[in-house]
Fold these 2 entries.
Entry 1:
Amino acid sequence: MPPLLVALLATVRSSVRSRLALEAEILALRHQLAVLRRQAPKRPRLSRLDRGLWVLLSRLWPQWRQAVQIVQPATVLGWHRQGWRLYWRWKSRSRQPGRPRIPRAIQTLIHQMCRANPTWGAPRIHGELLKLGIEIAETTVGQYLVRPRRPPSQTWRTFLANHVGQLVAVDFFVVPTLTCRVLFVFVVLAHERRRILHVNVTEHPTAEWTAQQLRNAFPWDTAPRFLLRDRDGIYGPAVRTCLDAMAIDDILTAPRSPWQNPYVERLIGSIRRECLDHVIVWNEHSLRRHLTRYISYYHEWRTHLALDKDAPVPREAHPVTGGAIVQVPHVGGLHRHYERRAA
């Protein structure tokens, strides 16, 4: 049976008893309460219903302070103040709290703008939304911004796109000949549209020879801002002096990390797979001839995935009505390109 119901029944029963019996029962109850307090000194746990009963007694019975034993009178007054605050919080609650939520599509658009433009704040995004005909408050835009954990910065892709016209990469690769000689090929590749700026062949590469190749690759004022290379010992003091004189900053890859110079490595792989693996190299003259033919095909006709299926030298797309399709061989017939020609 709940304690509150027991207390109510005891109150009704005491109203019909004699005065002496009532005093005796009160004495017995207080003695038992004192014994319980000595044996269980911990603070008792009262339910919300028990607290409500004592709050009600404190409002209706002037002598309630002499009857309360298990808690302090200040605790009962605290319960009353807490209930009063909860009542008025419930009474003054808003039926529709806060501003109305904006549509999910606009929230997604704000998130996309914030992630794509990490240096933008609420005013810039709000201005873009106004130009799109979306009328919302700037403070509302600020509530849906994506807060980055780090300071805003451009992505590496954006950085490379802004500096791709100032980046070149260089590297060597070897080609064995039919007479068991080893030839070294030096390649200079511009990152912008994957253009091969210079290529040359030698049997005995030196730092002085390499420096001269760089001078030939960048005549007059065509020197780039950055040059990406590996840590090969061929790039000696003569090469570094040449780069300093041309105001080029050389960027070194980590040891044994060819993946940090991917574009020129991909070019060397294409030259091997598409040309040198299918021909016999006799000497330097033979190798230069094969490379010249392949580089001509590479620049004018070979399509690249990184260039949206276009060549380094942009190719014109022929209309369907341009005539019959013909094939034109390149690199001695190893490759072909196709075009339309009028009859």
Note: Residues 3-90 form one domain.
Entry 2:
Amino acid sequence: MADVAEKPRILVVDDSRVVRISLIQHLKGQYEIREESDGEAAWQTLVLDHSIHAVISDLQMPKMNGFQLLERVRTSKLKRLQQLPFILVSGEETEEERLKAKEMGVSDFVTKGAGCAELSTRLHNLLVLTDAQEQLDASREQMAQDPASGLFTRKYLELQAAQAMSHATRHGTDVSVMVLGFDGFASMGERLGVQVAEEVGNRFAKMLGNKMRQEDSLGHFGAGQYAVVSPGTAPAFCATFAERVREAVEVARLSVQGQTVALTVSIGLASVPTDAATSAGSLLDLAGERMHAAMRAGGNRTESGGALPATRPISIHHALELLAANRVSPVIPHLPSLAERLLPLMALMNKELGLSLPVAEIERFLSERKSK
């Protein structure tokens, strides 16, 4: 019984009992098998059974097909499901199906004609790769700094935040955290390659580190995502700094592999005692959730949880920086407010330089636009 318990548990999902029996017969010597006949039952099993190491699922099934099951797994809030090896098996594989599965995060895509031996080989390779990645992640979590970037690890940031929160409780001060992530980081990785995308992020993070206070801590939060822990910083000051960072990234011109890359970031803020966070982990997670909310709302914005407005009118100086960087689209929504602020300057230019700028007409247009 001890040998059986040590075998990796695999979930086989197929509405055909014949197919399930065939797979089980072939895999049972190496794995402990659990089976389900439809996607909905498989999803319930995955949520409840923490011992499952991988999923082999048919594509066409009743109640919930393989694509729908894969989507639930990859979008789950449970990290163990997000990273779970998932093999889709299709009777009639098409290039369209393969592409869709890849975009949804499938680990492998196999045709039923490939045979059980091929499926077994691919499953074994996936499990070996997953085990190696888990060991690497575990070892990195024990380190204070990431060896590639030199930045603090997420685990170490939590320790820093916990110490800052303990100090703040004793002395009645604030602790703020800022989590920022590049908008469209995954697509940037597809265009430039994952290593290049990570290098771009690390270069930005190092520049950010030079602008921070000595008592602040900067580290990794996720892929293309970074966190800053700021002891003794009130939410308003943190939000001001976040907006400066966001605007600086928006106008930056970064050359990568001979091409100019336009970048924007979304930023989430959280702080204690303003936010009801009871631990360092929950404080960082709250800031992370707000960053994702900013991304879902269109990106290139700060979500502060109400400490300050998430979006503010841009300054004339920032608008000119954007235009100089050939970034016209971010300026367009702010044109009415920019024009209103420029009216006194245009009136002065008319008076002192003898120009004939249509100041009154512009003023009337803006007034009518407001009333509408």
Note: The two ends are 76 Å apart (CA to CA).
